[in-house]
Amino acid sequence: MNQAHTKRLPLKPVIKDVNQWPLTKTTSERKEFKAQVRTRTLNALKRNFQDSSEFYELLKNVIYLEKIRLTQNPWKTDKQSEALFWADIKAQLLELEKQNNHTSNNHLEGILTQIINHYLQEILSRFEPRAYRFAQRILPYFYGGLLKSAPGRRIQKFWRSKDSIYDRFIFYGDIDRLRELASIGPLIVLPNHQSNLDSPTIGYGIDLLGLPAMTYGAGINLFTLPWLSKKMNQLGAYKVDRRKKNAIYLEVLKSYSSVCLARGVHSLFFPEGTRSRSGTLVNKMKLGLLGTAIQTQKDYVLDEGKENKPVIIVPVSINYSFTLEAESLIDQHLKMQGREQYIKEASVTATSYRLLSILFSHRYTKPEIHIAFGEPTDIFGNKLDALGRSLDVHGNFINREEYFRRGNQHVHNDQRDSVYAQDLGQIVQKGLHDNKVVLSSNIVALVAFRMLKASFPKMDLYELLRLPLEDVFWEWDDFLDTCQRTIDHIRIKANQGNCILSTQLDQSTTSIASHGVKHLGIYNSKRALVRSSEGKLRSESLLLLHFYANQMEAYVDNV
Amino acid sequence: MSTMYNRDMGVGIIGAGKFGLALCNLLAVKNPVKLYSRRQEDAANFETNQQLRDVALHNNVSLETDLMNLCKTCEVLIPAIPSDNYPELIQAIQNIVNPGHFIIHATKGFIQSNANPDTKSHRPLTVSEYFEQFTSVRRIGMIAGPNLSHEIHQGLPAGAVIGSRFNEVISIGKELFSSDRFQIFGSNDLLAIELAGILKNYIAIGAGITEGLDLGSNARSLYITRALAEIIYIANRLGVSSTSFLGLAGVGDLMATCQSPLSRNFTVGYRIAKGESIESIVNDSIETVEGLKTLKLIHNEWRYTSRIPIAQILHEILFEQKDPRSLVNVFMKATGENDVEFAL
User: Fold this and answer.
1) Peptide bond into A310 cis (omega under 30)
2) For residue A533, how many C-alpha atoms fall within 13 Å in the half-sphere facing its CB?
3) Which of A34-43, A235-244, B310-319 reaches the highest mean pLDDT?
4) In Å, what is the CA distance from B219 to each residue of B182, B212, B216, B329?
5) Domain residues of chain B, as ranges?
6) CA angle, A293 as apex, A291 and A295 as ends, to 5°?
7) How close does chain A come to B344, measured CA to CA in Å?
8) B104 beta partners
9) Could you tell me which residues of chain B have a Cβ less than 8 Å from any Cβ in chain A?
10) Which fold is adopted by the domain B192-332?
11) CB atoms < 10 A from the CB of B178, how many?
């Protein structure tokens, strides 16, 4: 069974000198790094587009797509110079055509290199230890405010020790093993994605555990504020533009991530691709970036001296009792799913009285963030020992090169690797599912919504969500009974390894239920559940309740 | 790290049953083949006249009595054993097979596994799922299709499909098996191929009954068509698309096994219809009748649905002593408004 990690936070850094971190080295050796990405991209493209006429078509196609993007889907983040750049590339290509050189590989490669450089310049992250240390100092205050606790140990004396943020970050999983493995091979940390808060949370969480900083892809749409965008860039974020779907851009992105991994830089991907709109786990993982994990492992195998190095997969589940943007997420989800059946709830205007009363109602809450690290595995889902060797289910060592072998040699086979990537997607999904930490707030949301459904069995979801709120209430005693049964059910699931029980569930049912109701969806403008003065349980927003209940739907059998 | 084996494209067949021997001779046309038999007496027989169970084996075939050695020297392993024997086989080879092995199995039966409660569904596993769960081998495929061993031994032309998620496995299968009297097709839908092979077995028992009752070709065709809809229904419920059932592993195999007295499953049905008891038939047969086990498992899993009438009635006929004639009722009294009610 998974127990909460009990060592005092923050843990000592695995590599003390920031300048020795692989990510720092990509900045200090930037020239070399860029050259590696460039070569890799060129080689990959050459494999896929073998003769020069195909190359020529590719370039024409990319120029066309980029022109469309710039004119029809412009974003604030687009640089002025982009239009000029593409006009120039187009002119060069036309010139080649005029001179009848457009079938010459060398000329085409020249243009291609310019495009690659252009993309690379945009994507590249420039990790700065200084910015990182700055964030290390700022984040405790941010989380101190959010979790309503003291921002660190130093001021601890003035507060009760319980109220330090270090007690509000609760970690599960084999942290010691993770720290050992961090110096053996690149970690690929794969968290679930519920909220925009996830990136800073996992970043700070990783720092609390003493792991070196990771590089991560962030949507280019987040880079609108110049100051913030510079900071994100300096914290290891590289830019991903989801509008660009052309073959060259995608290849640069893949090569970027592969080269990072090959250099031992730990990476963070959100395998679901986007925040979950409904609250449930997205059931199709993004395979593109998982594919680079397979590629890197294959490169290690073929590369003499590195053949024993594993690429390490770590699914991570981040759990809060609140999702700041829950209202807009579930709204988007139901709009997509329900179309005309879905009628938006009236939103409350944020008067100062309203805001004050929200803050006041939370004065006794102690929000926590529970982060569970799944068991680190290799890219095939095999367990790893402390030295990074893969073990099969019977505990035999597996030579990872066997996966890529046929006869007495290793063979390239993209189809085989894509099947491995699909399987990795499944492994990650199972990892995310099984490492969900069940909080008290999860239990109450689930129970309340299920009871609601049961009392109106003939209504479909949209009818339920439209119920007048004054007709919806739960008798506290009935509610406790159902909570008890649900907790028993979840305990069985946890024993089977399908989820993790949070430290909050160590209490009596009554305390769990009260704790859950008190903490569920704080910071949302309406409360998903609230104890009314007559002792009944009421909801201010069934949409929110539905959203929070969805987070648990996968853990109860349909009865 | 595990030991490096010095293996070329060695091919090893596990299991010297009728079908194992048929595959053996097919392979031996082009490649040296190692055959593993667990029966001690086989070694001596083979030694004296290059024959096993009255089947003359090709000169390229050599007999291997050490399973470990077979796995060490062969990159491609082809298990052709009854589904019941897999737990034992895996137990024996689990520490020696590794991700460098390719497996193309030929077993049309489910494996019941209580060993691991962690499985996604509680349904019995197919051979490939069993391998994936208990070994580190990943590149797995299955060879299936209308391949009655008797006809293959006679050297008559035939074809089969190799199902695997890995194109690598399919191409290895093609290289190894295809010849001027054996044609190989490929499919990436491994689970569908496995299920098609497994499910057709119990259908063949019913076909044997129609023959035994002398119901004629019309009735048998009616039966087979309705049966196809039933097994497609089951496959769909298990998350598999219908398309592969139109291929060699589905319709192809049904045509062969439901028509031919050479099929073991068919023979069981035929003898039941002629009034023999199931016990005496099972006692008589040398080789495993996969259809009986499949029927029990399917019936166990799905008994509460009305959508598998054929499996239900066959279960009653075989294990609850119901009159074989009642099979006719199922397809004569079915309230079928639509001829084709499954979607492709």
Assistant:
1) no
2) 0
3) A34-43
4) 32, 12, 6, 11
5) 11-188, 192-332
6) 70
7) 24
8) B141
9) 1-2, 4, 6-9, 75, 94-95, 98-100, 117-118, 133-136, 138-139, 165-168
10) N-(1-d-carboxylethyl)-l-norvaline Dehydrogenase; domain 2 (1.10.1040)
11) 18
Concatenated DSSP letters for A139-176? HHHHHHHHTTSBSSSTTGGGS-GGGBGGGTEEEES-HH
Q: Are A442 and A553 in contact (CB under 8 A)?
A: no
Nearest Cα neighbor of A232 from A220, A243, A250, A242 is A220
Give the CA radius of gyration of chain B. Answer: 20
Dihedrals φ, ψ of A384, to 5°?
-120, 145
Query: Do the first three CATH levels of B11-188 and B192-332 match, i.e. the same topology?
Result: no
| Amino acid present at A396 | N
Least confident of A253-262, A354-363, A381-390: A354-363
The pLDDT assigned to B117 comes to: 47
- pLDDT score, position B58: 82
Question: Which residues make Cβ contacts (< 8 Å) with residue B316, sequence separation at least 6?
Answer: B322, B326
Cross-sheet strand order for the sheet of A530-531: A473-474, A537-538, A530-531
Residue keyed to tokens 């028992």: B205
Query: In this structure, what token pair is assigned to residue A476?
Result: 């506290």
Helix axes A287-302, A414-434, angle to 10 degrees: 120
CA distance A486 to A559: 12
C-alpha–C-alpha distance, residues A26 and A326, integer Å: 37
| Interface membership of A416 toward B (CB under 8 Å) | yes
Contact B98 A393 (CB under 8 A): no
What's chain A's Rg over C-alpha atoms?
A: 26
Amino acid at B308: I
**CB-based contact B196:B249 (threshold 8 Å):** yes
Backbone angles phi, psi at A348, to 5 degrees: -90, 140
Give the pLDDT score at A559. Answer: 44
Q: What is the mean pLDDT of residues B79-84?
A: 91
Specify the 3-state DSSP secondary structure of A504: helix
Contact B4 A497 (CB under 8 A): no
| Residue A191 contacts residue A317 (beta carbons within 8 Å) | yes
Question: Is A134's Cβ below 8 Å from some Cβ in B?
Answer: no
pTM comes to: 0.89
C-alpha span between A489 and B186 (Å, rounded): 45
**pLDDT number for residue A310:** 92
Asked if B200 is an active-site residue, the reply is yes
**A342: helix, coil or strand?**
coil
Q: What is the pLDDT of residue B334?
A: 67
Q: What's the one-letter identity of residue B179?
A: S
Query: b/e string for A229-249 if b means 16 or more Cβ within 10 A?
Result: bebbbbbbbbbbbebbebebb
Q: Report yes or no: A200 and A140 within 8 Å, Cβ to Cβ.
A: no
Check pLDDT > 90 for residue A165.
no
Contact assessment for residue A292 and residue A203, using Cβ atoms and an 8 Å cutoff: no
Task: Give the closest of A402, A406, A407 to B98, CB-based.
Answer: A402
Architecture of the domain whose range is B11-188: 3-Layer(aba) Sandwich (3.40)
| From B200, B296, B322, B333, the catalytic residue | B200
Quote the pLDDT of residue A426: 92
B69-to-A413, B4, B245 alpha-carbon distances in Å: 29, 14, 37
Structure tokens at B180: 């001027």
Question: What's the distance, CA B333 to chain centroid?
Answer: 31
